[in-house]
């Protein structure tokens, strides 16, 4: 197992590899210098405000600031988003300016995407991903022993690799505390929590054959034996 100096993190073994679960709702693969997140949903707040739903601004700036902290603490060379980097069509909304400023200051960072159901704009407009500084792999990225996807349920072939994805936004409920984002792992797949704080959730509970890890504000908590 690897050692980690990231406060509150937890090292686990998956498919023979040491992975680090971070309280900031991200997964770090130290051997490959890869930081993985799922469901960033850039522009979600803008999308709702344009629809007339009153929401506070600043969500994108908050998410990017958190991402900066994770990249600084892990020194990852690659950022892999497991689907739904975007939420809706790309417009001249404020989130795009924030993203372009953020991306422009990190030219050495490889930002990569496994395309999700909300990333239609990147598939529909040629050259858009390059403008945003993103490399799109398509629906899956095989990186042995893992197969990185958006929704692990979309691929059932175990021979393809241990599936790591997002899409489901797993959360747990503990007595006396608000719901918490969670990582969920079973024998064939793992699901990351939604990275954006502005997301709904799929409630998951401890059960035989699964491992659950809650992302408390400053620490990852192992609930597998709870």
UniProtKB/TrEMBL annotation:
It comes from the Bacteria. InterPro entries: Metallo-depent_PP-like, PdeM-like, Pesterase_MJ0037-like. Keywords: Ligase. Signal peptide: none annotated. The keyword Translocase does not apply. Transmembrane segments: none annotated. The keyword Ligase applies. One of its GO terms (molecular function) is ligase activity. PANTHER family: BLR1149 PROTEIN (PTHR39323:SF1). This is DNA ligase-associated metallophosphoesterase. It comes from Luteimonas terrae. The lineage of its organism: Bacteria, Pseudomonadati, Pseudomonadota, Gammaproteobacteria, Lysobacterales.
């Amino acid at each position: 197992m690897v050692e980690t100096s990231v406060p509150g993190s937890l090292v686990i073994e998956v498919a023979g590899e040491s992975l680090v679960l971070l309280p900031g709702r991200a997964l770090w693969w130290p051997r490959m210098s890869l930081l993985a997140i799922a469901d960033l949903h850039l522009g979600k707040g803008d999308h709702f405000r344009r629809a007339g739903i009153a929401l506070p601004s600043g969500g994108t700036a908050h998410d990017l600031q958190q991402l900066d902290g994770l990249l600084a603490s892990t020194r990852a060379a690659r950022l892999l988003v497991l689907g739904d980097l975007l939420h809706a069509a790309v417009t001249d909304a404020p989130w795009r300016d924030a993203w372009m400023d953020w991306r422009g200051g990190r030219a050495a960072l490889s930002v990569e995407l496994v395309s999700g159901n909300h990333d239609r704009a990147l598939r529909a407009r040629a050259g858009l991903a390059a403008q945003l500084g993103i490399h799109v792999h398509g629906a899956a990225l095989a990186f042995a022993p893992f197969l990185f996807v958006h929704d692990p349920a979309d691929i059932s072939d175990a021979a393809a690799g241990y599936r790591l994805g997002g899409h489901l936004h797993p959360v747990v409920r503990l007595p006396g505390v608000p719901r918490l984002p969670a990582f969920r792992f079973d024998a064939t797949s793992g699901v990351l929590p939604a990275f954006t704080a502005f997301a709904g959730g799929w409630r998951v509970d401890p059960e035989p054959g699964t491992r659950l890890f809650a992302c408390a504000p400053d620490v990852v908590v192992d609930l597998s034996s709870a």
